[in-house]
């Protein structure tokens, strides 16, 4: 091998940073990395790889997870390069399952903000809420996603400009925690 660094070498500084950022134990991170690389030897997951991997981590049926996995991909892909590397995955997964409500909502915001312009409009919210209905097995007839989004906006769009900034979104859901049941796919 000479001076070449082996392909699966785990840089100590990367590992230390992950321990700091996620609060996970070293052994847990190493185990996750093994699993991640087994699912994706190149270490960079595209949407298809990610869907396969993500659904194996969820309890819901494949069909239900399918649509939401697409949005989760967008939220986890922090640098928006269309691939999820191990750091993005681990931080995303650890924070959305073990983080505080506020930390989770930061990811939820990214999940809704499709065009990444740092605000959520009604259209962006309707797409995800529809997928959330499917994930939760909630019928759309009685209370259509469009109406649900109207109600969410009238509740948390405090300056009434038809878009939600990150602060409006996070503070609004923190003030009305029951909203997270329908808004966030990262509840237990
Ligand atoms: Ca990325
Ligand atoms: Ca947006
Ligand atoms: Ca607003």
Automatic annotation (TrEMBL):
Listed SMART domains: EFh
MF annotations from Gene Ontology: calcium ion binding
Pfam families referenced in this protein's UniProt entry, alphabetically: EF-hand_7, EF-hand_8
Family, per entry: Belongs to the recoverin family.
UniProt-listed Gene3D superfamilies: EF-hand
All residue ranges annotated as the EF-hand domain in the record: 64-99, 100-135, 144-179
Taxonomy of the source species: Eukaryota, Metazoa, Spiralia, Gnathifera, Rotifera
Protein's recorded name: EF-hand domain-containing protein
Keywords annotated in UniProt: Calcium, Lipoprotein, Metal-binding, Myristate, Repeat
